[in-house]
Write a sequence for this structure.
């Protein structure tokens, strides 16, 4: 299953991975799901990105992605 989220000005892939999955080391999951944006280091505000479910065996927060997004 794939969710989407909208970025805030200055977000980076590792910051989003930490926020969404509980580990910045899982940023590769987000990058693979958003290849058209992978050359961007700092993401612009309002960019919709795909947030896939983690592969089996990967640890994450027990919360669903929509509940982990900062306010």
């Amino acid at each position: 299953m794939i969710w989407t989220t909208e970025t805030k000005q200055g977000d980076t892939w590792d910051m989003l991975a930490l926020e969404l999955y509980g580990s910045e080391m899982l940023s590769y999951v987000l990058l693979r799901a958003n290849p058209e944006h992978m050359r961007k280091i700092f993401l612009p505000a309002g960019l919709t990105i795909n947030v896939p479910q983690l592969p089996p065996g990967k640890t994450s927060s027990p919360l669903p992605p929509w509940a982990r997004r900062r306010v």
